[in-house]
Structure formats: structure tokens, C-alpha cells
Amino acid sequence: MSAPRVAERKRSTKETEISVRIDLDGTGQAKVSTGIPFFDHMLEQIGRHGGFDLELTARGDLDVDTHHTIEDTGIVLGAAFAEALGDKAGVRRFASYLLPLDEALIQVALDLSGRPFLVYEVDTPPQMIGTFDPQLAEEFFRAFVTSAGITLHLKSLSGKNGHHMVEASFKGVARALRDAVRVEGGDIPSTKEVL
Q: What is the CA angle 145-171-62, rounded to 5?
């Protein structure tokens, strides 16, 4: 039996305090509390559609802005994800997904390469979604992929409703992560023999 792919990470700064526990081989159960309701809903999508058990709490300086909380959550979640993956032996590594949500269609492609890179071309309208600024979705994904060592391309192929476009992005990334972390063998999927 292989080792559990579970990790816990914490980060405390003057601006935020974040705690994450993730199990990559879970059942999609997510308990999230950040003080930003729509962001909680998006992080729950990562757990549910990624098939990960996720426990995440964040306390941040929301009286200043939501930016610090959202970005720092990406940093800590990415670090926990990378730790849970370990040496990546046997994983599929690459995955892509097209995810529709009503009029919105999002294209996702990713590589668990160890080389962080984000191409973000999701053209959401600028209107707030509750207390969530849709521009901060890009900041979350940048922080996440940087800490996790993932190359991620996200592109909107259609969409007008910001809620639909952001939610489709999170669901699409979750589904692609679910495919990429699936274990298919025992070798590290790289000619370098390290990721």
C-alpha cells in the first residue's frame, strides 16, 4: 500500500493566518472558512470536484481588503498540495479539461512539472461577486501554482456572467488536478526522472 498523500501547512503573517489540511485521495469533503463567502464556495469546488478532502481556515485583514487573504490562501494551499504529492511517482502529470457552466466555457491545461507558470486569459466582467473581486481569481491561481510547482493555462472561450466564469475556472482546475494526480504506475513521469 502506498503512503497517504496528505499534508498540513500553516502560515502566519501580520496580515493573515492560514491553516490547510489536504488529502489527495479523499472523497471530496471540504470544510472551508475564509470570511469571504464566494471564495469559500470556490475552494469547496476544488475539494469536491478534485476528489480531495480539504480543511482550510483563513483569518485575514478583511477590513483592509480581501487581496491578502485570497493570495495567501493560494500560497498555503499550493504548498500543502506540493507536499502531499511527494515525489510524484506514478502520477499522470498532465491533464486538460473543458468545463461549461451555462454560457461560460473555460479551457484548462496543466502540468505537475515542478516549474511554476500561469497563463491566465479569463476575461471576467469587473463587477464584484458578493465581496469577491473577480480580478483576485488570477492572484489566487498565481500564488497556488507558484507554491505547488504547477504550469497552468486557463482561458475563457465564452462567457458573460462573472460568477459563472470564475466558478467554471475553479471547477475546471479541480477536475484537471484530479486527473493529473491519479496514480497510473510507479515511475516518475519524466525523462529527467525527477519533477
A: 65
pLDDT tens, residue order, the chain (195 aa):
578 999 999 999 999 999 999 999 999 999 999 999 999 999 999 999 999 999 999 999 999 999 999 999 999 999 999 999 999 999 999 999 999 999 999 999 999 999 999 999 999 999 999 999 999 999 999 999 999 999 999 999 999 999 999 999 999 999 999 999 999 988 988 888 888
Q: 10 Å Cβ neighbour count for 157?
A: 13
> Residue 134 and residue 143: Cα distance in Å, rounded?
15
Is 66 inside a domain boundary? yes
CATH number, domain containing residue 19 = 3.30.230.40
Rounded-to-5 percentages of helix, strand, coil across the chain? 35, 30, 35
Q: How many distinct structural domains can be found in the chain?
A: 1
Range of the structural domain that residue 120 is part of: 6-180
Nearest of 44, 56, 6, 42 to residue 181 by alpha carbon: 6
Q: Dump the DSSP string for 154-178.
A: EEEEE-S-HHHHHHHHHHHHHHHHH
